[in-house]
Fold this sequence. Notes:
The complex is a heterodimer of chains A (344) and B (316).
Chain A: E1 4-13, E2 16-26, E3 31-35, H1 42-50, E4 57-62, E5 65-66, E6 77-80, H2 92-102, H3 107-120, H4 136-148, E7 154-158, H5 166-183, E8 186-191, H6 194-200, E9 203-208, E10 211-216, H7 218-223, H8 228-233, E11 240-244, E12 247-251, E13 256-258, E14 269-281, E15 285-292, E16 300-306, E17 318-324, E18 329-332
Parallel strand pairs in A: 3-8, 3-9, 6-7, 7-8
Antiparallel strand pairs in A: 1-2, 1-4, 4-5, 9-10, 11-12, 12-18, 13-17, 14-15, 14-17, 15-16
Chain B: H1 2-18, H2 22-52, H3 69-76, H4 78-110, H5 116-128, H6 131-141, H7 148-155, H8 177-205, H9 209-217, H10 222-251, H11 254-259, H12 271-281, H13 285-293, H14 295-315
Amino acid sequence: MATVETRNIKKHFGSVKAVDGVNLAIREGEFFVILGPSGCGKTTLMRMIAGLETPTEGTVLIDDQDVTGLPPRMRNLAMVFQSYALYPHMTVFDNIAFPLKAQKTPKQELRLKVEATATTLGVNLLLDRKPRQLSGGEKQRVALCRAMVKEPEFLLLDEPLSNLDAKLRVAARSELEMFQRQMGITTIFVTHDQIEAMAMGDRIVVMSAGKIMQVGPPQEIYHDPANLFVATFLGSPTINLLEKDGILVGFRPEHYLPLAASIVKSDLVTTIPLRVSLVENLGPDRLVYGEVEDSFEGKTTAAKLPSMVAIPIEPGETYDFVIETKHLKFFDKLSGLKTEPITF
Amino acid sequence: MEQAAKHPAIIKTRLQYLTDRQGFLGTVFLMPAVMYILLLVAIPFFLAIAFSLSDVTVGDTSLDYVGLENFRRVLETPQFRRALLNSFIFTLTAQLIVIILANILAVIFYEDFPGKWIARMLIIMPWATPISLGTIGWLWIFDSKFSPIDWVLQQLGLLGPDTLLGPGKHLNYLGREELAMVVVIFIHVWRMLPLATVILLAGLSSIDKDLIDQAEVDGATFWRIHTRIRIPLLFPIMSIALLFGMIFTFGDMVVVFVLTRGGPVYYTQVLPTWAWFKGIDGGNLSEGAAVALFLFPLLLVVAIFMLRSASRSEVN
């Protein structure tokens, strides 16, 4: 197991700054998620950690050793690509054995290791197949098998779940998570999927335009976003933002509930009435859209009501909605950064 | 009255829709290809078979059936046997060298480096040059008296009296059996290399970049990646390049014809040139046809392999 660190790492492609000065320190055994929209530089960052890309500037350290100029094979890491990148002309066995062969492992030992790893991940019955005969989930496991067989110091995962269909993805996600906890291997997971990030990460780094927006545990990222980008990137529907005196007041739709359904003491809540324009019943939740009145600019605002809140809500009516005051977030409109609370 | 008025419109419509009828259009569009194959491939081919089984010559154009007499007689001549052997030597040696060099070049051109475009253009030049013109150029370069290579060697002190390459002031490339063969092979390589390189380059670019990255992360060295990942994945397209080159080289008469005319003596004769010298130059059409037909089963086998590997790579 290893620690991974990047110091002021940069990668410029011509005038494009794919990664622009990123400092990260990933702890031993940690499940670390790099989250961001496509094009934010997260994959480039991972490729630099892997050694597939040479940084324009900055250093990569593995176990406090500078590995910046070293090729991937000198870094004892493993990686699973989004496409799984199984060698199409090799059987599953040969695919899994490939990293061991590169290390010139003796035949006997190689066979034992491949079979042991394959059994752990439940692909031991597929060893004679070719990749094209595998389902998406099987491919993912074989790829993980190939990554783990050489007992790497850390594991890089580049959106390994996004090629699976929705149902399988959830199962594969928890499987992967359990596997990582069992092995205790330092893992860096790149994704653009906030749910994956929230579910799996010990810590998350949110990136945008090659820069770090925030680093922290999932709950902190979600509940205490450092800036507008993080606040709006996470959560669905997105956070409500209301403007007052150059300050944006944010609150998440699931914290915005009808007064009648609120169980919090009235001195701990802020009331913002909502004129309802649309109600969507999604089953587990009800989404209520409308416009706030009060002293804010009229702006579409969403509320997410769990199905337990059964109060009838009709479009066209105005209801008192409340937010627990501690859930209010404040951002400076110009800089986008978190600011001191204001009262209203 | 109304009916009559509609009538011309209906005719016009029918003519319009003629171009929408697939049967009609199909026939029309296929015609040029069918004509081409019939006139320039099928008829000459069957004519050649007929010639080879008869005693036709330029002087006596009547076709009298003589069975396999021509083939027997052709086989007996040392010139033919040498031509057959040479065809194999030239083709196989040239293609072996081509495929090795094309692999190297393709890997080089796959990477980015300054001046890549100009280098790429230069590499493709031999293929873009008409082969007869190219060969004439080489004919001058390998001239017995004015060869610039000889001149360079002389200046370097490698050629001339009391030097490494012997007392003569000229190597006389095309006048010596082994050297002439080497030169023929060299020109075939020079000519086929661009095509093979381009084919392999296309093959390389079609390999998923992730696979190479993955292999790197899996700890493979450049050499291991090349032998275990790239070459196996390139194999189908490489065999196409190889078979294509073989057909081209095997059936080519221009290089030998322009360069050596089969000489010295008949030591660089190949089947196509020998068929020409025998049948057209010598006027013995029937024996010329018999020589030419020796190419057929060989090319057929190669063509079958080529089409099979092409369709297989399509399936994958």
